[in-house]
Amino acid sequence: MSTLTNSVQWPPSLWAAQTPPGPELPDLQGSVQADVVIIGGGFTGLSTALHLREAGTDVAIVEAMEPGWGASGRNNGQVIPTLSRPDPDDLVARHGAAGERFVAMLRDSASNLFDTVRRYNIDAEHEQTGWVQPVHTPGRIKIAERRFKQWSKFGAPVELLSRDQARDMLGSDAWHGGFWNKTGGHINPLALARGLARTVLSLGGRIYARSPVIDFARQGDRWVVRTARGELSARALVLASNAYSGEFSKALAPDLAHEVMPVLSWQMATQPLSDNIRKTIIPARQAMSDTHGELYFARYDARNRLVTGGAVIGPGNKAERLKARVAERLQRLWPQIGEVRFDYVWNGYVGMTTDYMPRIHRLGPDAYGWTGCNGRAVALTIPLGAELAKAVRGVPAKQLALPFTEPVTIPAHALLRPFAPLMLLLYRYRDAREIA
Ligand SMILES: Cc1cc2nc3c(=O)[nH]c(=O)nc-3n(C[C@H](O)[C@H](O)[C@H](O)COP(=O)(O)OP(=O)(O)OC[C@H]3O[C@@H](n4cnc5c(N)ncnc54)[C@H](O)[C@@H]3O)c2cc1C
């Protein structure tokens, strides 16, 4: 049995450079059995496995590369207890009682993540400093007011920030107020993924790495998952390959792969800021993502780098163009920052749905999957894993915070995919205008 680790190609990210290696893992060879098989070792798969092991259920993850190789190890690490656009009333209007249970799960999701990290002593460079969504035009205070009103109704610890409060919190005059949730914060996401993987192993779970699943099928009363060198038969299955579902095998789950547009999101980390400058920019170290469609976002890492990013379209060296564009943005927001140099630039796929809603599915008897993180599910994946674990253990749907829907694929997905980046032009057009 191979026990190689880190033999896979990691994206050249800040997290890959700074995070201690993950556990040594075998690949899948021969015929293996488990009670539950999970395809994908990101936060969703790892959290599902962790909760199954807490309940004493036998579980094996089959991961194409290494735990955290997908979105979970590449993201900005902002722990945000909201969706990107839909608010509680949208979820309840669409999903009724299941929507209400989902809203409660989302409300508690950031605390759930930080509690999990503390409970298992995972060193994820975590800072529960809160999450703030400042508004970038005066009219967009309506967005903050709506969120504040709806989340207050559901008992979330949220506040509406005035322009002065936003200025004090962020150290910049650029915003006009905002929405503030005290339970949010930020983490080193790859450290969290690797820490969760270690925890799953320590609880007796199995993780097979470097084992891309080709397909899965129902055989008798079992699910059989096939890789190039082995197969795993299980009573129940969780598909946790999310935006990377089409990456290794087009046959894995075409319905799920085609209900999201995988959009490349670029991340960047500056050189560490001097302490004097750092104290003037987001001095209390909150995570921040604003109301631009072409999102402005930033948080500190443990070495006082600002971890931010941007979007870019068209030909040419994208990383170099982004460096110039995002440096100019940071200087505009915080003139005191001076010269900006980026040590790391990397990217990853965000799975966007047309309505920004997540999609959670029953895939067959004792089989579940989800997709559509819309760039906002670091916090969500941890309690979502707990719910998926309950589902495969037979907890009735009416007790689950899982608003199930049928997969709805995006028409002409393959034709449209190359044009998805052009949405950025629409975002820029809207960002520059006031909302009605
Ligand atoms: C660049 C970027 C920035 C982001 N920033 C934030 C943020 O700051 N805050 C936030 O809340 N959200 C953010 N997100 C979204 C967040 O990262 C995701 O919602 C979350 O990580 C999804 O976790 P997951 O486990 O469901 O999927 P993933 O982490 O993508 O895991 C899926 C796994 O499945 C594996 N896989 C795929 N196909 C196969 C196969 N055939 N066989 C076996 N394994 C397979 C992949 O290798 C991968 O490891 C960001 C996403 C990106 C890409």
UniProtKB/TrEMBL annotation:
<keyword id="KW-0560">Oxidoreductase</keyword>
<dbReference type="InterPro" id="IPR006076">
    <property type="entry name" value="FAD-dep_OxRdtase"/>
</dbReference>
<protein>
    <submittedName>
        <fullName>FAD-binding oxidoreductase</fullName>
    </submittedName>
</protein>
<feature type="domain" description="FAD dependent oxidoreductase">
    <location>
        <begin position="35"/>
        <end position="390"/>
    </location>
</feature>
<dbReference type="InterPro" id="IPR036188">
    <property type="entry name" value="FAD/NAD-bd_sf"/>
</dbReference>
<feature type="compositionally biased region" description="Polar residues">
    <location>
        <begin position="1"/>
        <end position="10"/>
    </location>
</feature>
<dbReference type="Pfam" id="PF01266">
    <property type="entry name" value="DAO"/>
</dbReference>
<feature type="region of interest" description="Disordered">
    <location>
        <begin position="1"/>
        <end position="26"/>
    </location>
</feature>
